[in-house]
Amino acid sequence: MKIYLVGGAVRDKLLGYPHHERDWVVVGARPEELEAQGFIPVGKDFPVFLHPKTKEEYALARTERKTGPGYTGFSFHSSPEVTLEEDLRRRDLTINAMAEDDSGQLVDPYGGREDLQRKLLRHVSPAFAEDPVRVLRVARLAARYHHLGFRIAPETVELMKQLVDNGEVDHLVAERIWKETERALMEKSPEVFITSLRDCGALARIMPELDALFGVPQPAEHHPEIDTGEHCLMVLQQAVRMNGSARVRFAALTHDLGKGATPPAEWPKHIGHEQRSLSLVNELCERLAAPKEFRELARLAAQYHTHGHRAMELKPSTVLKLFKAADAFRRPTRFEEFLLCCEADARGRTGFEDRPYPQANYLRSALARCRAIDNGEIAAQGFTGKAFGQALDKERLRQLSKVKSALTD
Fold this sequence. Notes:
By secondary structure, this protein is α+β, with helices and mostly antiparallel strands. Helix content is 51%, strand content 9%. Among the domains are: 1-110, Beta Polymerase, domain 2 (2-Layer Sandwich); 208-372, Hypothetical protein af1432, CATH 1.10.3210. The strands form three sheets. It has a seven-stranded mixed β-sheet. A two-stranded antiparallel sheet has the order 6-7. The protein is elongated, with a radius of gyration of 26 Å. The N and C termini lie far apart (79 Å).
């Protein structure tokens, strides 16, 4: 029995890149041998075990054969006779097909170290084109290492296109797409995830609402970058710059989906795009099985981001309606994320990247004034039930009027 460190831990160790997970492959062993040593079996489709102390994953060396469509359409063969090189050959990229033995010696049968030096994401073998998840994984790794100068090898892009053209990508399940998307959103350059999917044609299959934005013009005086798709990528970059959560980044990316449904005869204007964006965000989130908190923030940003931009022009009653629609009194943290989306949108335009966004502080101040109202004082005046709510709103409007008046003082 021989045990090797494999995959991302080896790759990132050579890169000097932070990593937190380690995976291991076991050569020359049977399942019962690992179980006898206290390893806990967890693999349903092939032999994977958790170490009894570290809980790290140990997989028996295996080969695989394509038996059907999609990423589940494989049969696996594991036995003590399967070599380390055979196990590494079934992996997606050369930089993921390296191993390290217990003495720290590198095993690199497919040129992974050289591709690291060349900053190249390159497939190990033509079998890459059998698993559609690899399209997502490669796009995510491109987003992770873009700042280091990495690119996807042209021949690998061709295999990614092949997975799209032959319909394999259409067999991806929503949960797997979302898992890779959420991870990609938190990489250093998440916009590269989107452009990589678009370059191979996968974005049109996986997120057609987003793909439809590219080539759609906007008014040049407000959007010097013109292209709506490029604008959304710039907004995503600004969300990263402001250390936004994955929720903020997703909402930033999808806030303008309605512009892709504007009739071409109305271009470059997009009147009413907020409401169209809302319905398209709902469709996209449903297809991707996005978690509830992602859906809620994305819907909020889609429907109300222009309210954020016009905050200091709005009547106090309209600001109050915004607070209520956003549930800002009970969920101020989510409202803060909404403000980050608005600020990212305002700055996600060519030449506007560092422009101040006072609207956010204005709305923060307005919300703080409303939340500082003493409900006990209103109740002490004898108001209850519906009358209490009306009296509270009256006081909120009075405070909001003070905030607005302070703009001209």
